[in-house]
Design goal:
mainly beta, 6-stranded mixed beta sheet, 3 helices, globular
Length: 836
């Protein structure tokens, strides 16, 4: 009998090892250059490992296409010797490939993630950024060659500089000189965290920027920013004609130790322009598809107003003007309510009114409330009417939109005399899950600005009017501290989360993956769930068992397969997954989320990831082997074990070892460690074991087979077709009353038998856990489905350990489905007494 504890422990260790391995090898470790202008073409160098046999670049956004892919070459030193770089996360850089990217004139600004598709696999994500400005390189002539105003590099405004902070004995400071006119605006943005492709990073990527006049007087300085978190934004109004100097350096000098920085140091993009640089928009959102005037705030030359068209779909979208980065805005299917701002004369009269009478009136729900906490300590309030028993989702958007406001929201009933009652519900920060953000999270809690905004499910305790109050948690406020509070009916929602950064299947094979299913905030749906795929290419079928009714959420792993025919065309597609309620009478919203983390380090907010609503999928060359798993001929019973045979077929002389493991197992089912099958062996057996609380029912079972083709190519993984694994109740339940045995004594040890899952034929039983010096003797007892009691002959020697021994159990062995089945049952206490 396999040790159940050992099986579960090995299973956990293998899963942890696989997760760690997946984090180490990213294939694409460096992309240079990191930024390019619209309407240009450029050569891009991709560095990493396992880049051989490239076929295409798969982009997630329109506007960039790869027109040429060169051969994979080794990275060579000045002396022509191969150069290899080890990276902090366990990855490495061994080789490079040169591609030609063509960027359209209307390419969307910002980050463009992509994959390199190879003959047998697809890489993890790399990215390149698009700027509206012409791009120049820093061209630092030597270490510290542009560290002073006298040595500053001349640039012309409305330009993006590709620069780098170098590793050296003293801090590297980069200065740029710009000719300016009095009254002119100079706007500066430094992107470091936002453009990094370094997987591990902290304070070394924290940059600061200053603007100095000709005498070195500081006109403005910035380190972090509410809009870009750890990347600074700065704009100033120029006081006089002449020159200004833009200084870029590390916020706190940190030696650069990661080898990935060897390619020109820490890469940054410095955007310098005369463009407007607003820091907030008001209102920060509106009804979907609407077109109205929005005021842009925070520019040093004053606010300006322009008409903006809201996105056609609900959610957060980017609004670009002439700046190189966007302001996030919200589109919602609800009308806007703007805070009522009283005139100075009205303020005096309002001061005499009760707080409920000062609140901005909300005529209907659902709605979106908008306002500005313009002064420190300011509190805004809105009056609304609700019914007891209703459920509302109250979500604030401030920090998530780049506002410096850290909002707190309170809901208070209005008493009969117009005064405000006690706080019924209050929210400050949120968890990522409460913001419907699932998957990868920053370790230190930074990175996701959304978590500073509260999100609440509110069930009013009474009919009547309430006041919603909003203010800054720390009593702050500023002219750009905008907010938006969306109040909508709480509804059922499910999110499908895929942790893989792109996936592939081989012609004629299956690709199995595990997905996560989460309940979105306010979800109450607990019925049967069906997962469907959208965007599949020709010749590919999606197979995913339904999630049974009543399965608790979140489901951290659920099996799915992409089944590819032998005739499926080679190529790629962007696919998404949707969770649907099988019960058609209930409406359930669904989202698909996949995230590609770049910087994730303990401490600080050095965190960057790409959030995707699709995942790249590629059909690749056939795998050099296949596997087959026949349907189990018997059930896996609780406290029992089951052997699963696997047949292996190799093709085209493939001789590399093949590793076999289960794709997924239901709750309470464990396994032995993965098996490695050498060449010449065409059959193997994987073993699983069920705990006493294993989830009963029929489950999808699949085996995955992995092999390494060679060190230069990524491994190949395929999965067998799904077969049905039945987890059933144990065959019998055995029990014994506490008993005793003296040294030198032989006696009958009686156990009662209760049939729980009738079986054919007979079974034998033996005792487990007997203490030293006590043995089972004679012929093992047999039992059938009618047996009510069995007895063992046991004997104790003079060396038997004295005292009570707990945990004595029975192992029942029977034949079922053509294989020997072992089941463990019972837990009794046997006391060993001295010899008379």
């Amino acid at each position: 009998m396999l040790s159940l504890r050992r099986i579960f422990l090995v299973s956990a260790l293998v899963a942890s090892a696989n997760a760690a391995s997946a984090q180490r090898i990213h294939q694409i470790e460096s992309v240079l250059p990191r930024v390019a202008q619209r309407g240009t073409s450029l050569d891009v160098v991709i560095r990493g490992v396992q880049l051989v046999e490239p076929r295409e670049i798969i982009f997630y956004r329109p506007g960039i296409r790869c027109t040429a892919i060169g051969p994979v070459t080794e990275i060579l030193s000045d002396k022509g010797l191969p150069v290899k770089f080890g990276l902090a996360h366990g990855g490495r850089i061994d080789e490079e490939i040169r591609c030609r990217f063509e960027i359209a004139l209307d390419a969307p600004l910002g980050e463009h993630p992509f994959h390199l598709c190879r003959a047998t696999s697809i890489t993890m994500i790399g990215s390149i950024h698009v700027t509206p400005f012409p791009v120049v390189d820093e061209m630092e002539r030597g270490l510290n060659s542009n560290d002073t105003r006298e040595k500053a590099i001349d640039i012309v405004p409305n330009v993006t500089v590709r620069g780098g902070i170098k590793q050296q004995a003293v801090p590297d400071v980069d200065l740029y000189r710009v000719a300016v006119k009095a009254g002119q605006r100079i706007a500066v943005e430094v992107d470091v965290v936002r453009i990094t492709d370094t997987r591990i990073g902290a304070s070394e990527v924290d940059m600061a920027v200053r603007i100095l006049d000709e005498s070195g007087v500081e006109l403005g300085a910035a380190d972090d920013s509410a809009l870009h978190t750890q990347d600074p934004i700065l704009a100033v109004k120029i006081p006089r004609d002449g020159f200004v100097f833009i200084e870029v350096k590390q916020s706190t000098y940190t030696p650069i130790t990661a080898p990935a920085f060897s390619f020109g140091g820490i890469q940054y993009s410095l955007h310098v322009g005369t463009n407007r640089r607003p820091l907030a928009a008001y209102p920060p959102g509106g009804p979907i598809g609407s077109h109205f005037v929005v005021k842009f705030l925070g520019d040093p030359l004053g606010e300006h107003a322009t008409a903006v068209t809201m996105a056609a779909e609900p959610g957060t979208f980017e609004s670009f003007a002439d700046a190189p980065s966007a302001l996030p805005l919200r589109a919602s299917p609800y009308p806007n309510v703007l805070e009522a701002v009283p005139t100075p004369a009205q303020l005096q009269a309002r001061a005499k009114l009760p707080p409920s009478a000062r609140a901005t009136r909300v005529e209907q729900l659902p709605t979106a409330l908008n306002g500005i906490i313009a002064e420190p300590g300011e509190l805004d309030s809105f009056r609304l009417s609700v019914k007891k028993g209703s459920r509302w989702r109250v979500r604030a958007f401030a920090s998530a939109l780049g506002s410096p406001l850290d909002p707190v929201v309170r809901l208070r009933p209005i008493e009969a005399d117009g005064s405000l009652g006690p706080v019924e519900l209050e929210g400050d920060d949120s968890t990522p899950q409460e913001r419907d953000i699932f998957g990868h999270y920053p370790r230190s809690g930074g990175g996701f600005k959304d978590v500073l905004d509260p999100s609440l499910i509110w069930a009013p305790k009474a009919d009547g009017d309430y006041v919603l109050e909003i203010t800054d948690t720390a009593g702050g406020g500023s002219p750009v501290s905008v907010y938006r509070v969306e109040i909508e009916p709480a509804s059922d929602g499910l999110a499908c989360v895929l942790f893989w950064q792109g996936t592939q299947a081989h012609q004629g094979s299956n690709q199995g993956l595990s997905i996560r299913v989460e309940g979105m905030q306010g979800n109450t749906y607990a019925g049967e769930i069906e997962i469907v795929a959208h965007g599949l290419p020709e010749g590919v079928k999606f197979v995913c068992p339904r999630i049974p009714k009543g399965t608790p959420l979140p489901i951290f792993e659920w099996p799915m397969q992409l089944v590819t025919t032998a005739a499926a065309p080679l190529g790629s597609a962007l696919i998404s997954l949707e969770a649907r309620a099988v019960d058609g009478s209930q409406t359930v919203r669904s989202e698909f989320q996949s995230k590609a983390p770049f910087i994730y380090q303990v401490g600080g907010d050095s965190f960057h990831l790409i959030q995707l609503q699709q995942v790249a999928f590629a059909v690749n060359d056939p795998a050099p082997f296949s596997i087959e798993v026949p349907p189990p001929t018997t059930a896996l019973v609780r406290n029992g074990e089951l052997a699963v045979p696997v047949k292996i077929r190799r093709r085209n002389g493939f001789t590399e070892p093949i590793t076999l493991d289960f794709l997924w197992l239901p709750t309470g089912v464990g396994k032995e460690a993965a098996l490695t099958i050498p060449d010449g062996q065409s059959e193997a057996v994987l073993k699983m074991s069920a705990a006493s609380n294993a989830k009963l029912g029929d489950w999808a079972l699949s085996v995955k087979a992995s092999a390494v083709l060679d060190p230069k190519r990524a491994g190949v993984t395929i999965t067998s077709d799904f077969v049905t694994l039945t987890v059933a109740e144990s065959f019998v339940e055995l029990a014994a009353q506490p008993d005793s045995l003296r040294r030198g004594e032989r006696k009958r040890y009686v156990w009662t038998v209760k049939s729980k899952n009738p079986f054919d034929g007979s079974a034998t039983a033996k005792l487990l856990g007997l203490p030293k010096g006590v043995t089972q003797i004679g012929t093992p007892p047999t039992l059938t489905k009618e047996t009510a009691e069995i007895a063992f002959e046991i004997e104790a020697t003079d060396e038997a350990l004295l005292g009570p021994i707990a945990g004595v159990s029975c192992e029942v062995v029977l034949q079922a489905g053509g294989q020997e089945i072992h089941q463990r049952s019972g837990s009794a206490t046997l006391r060993i007494d001295p010899k008379l």
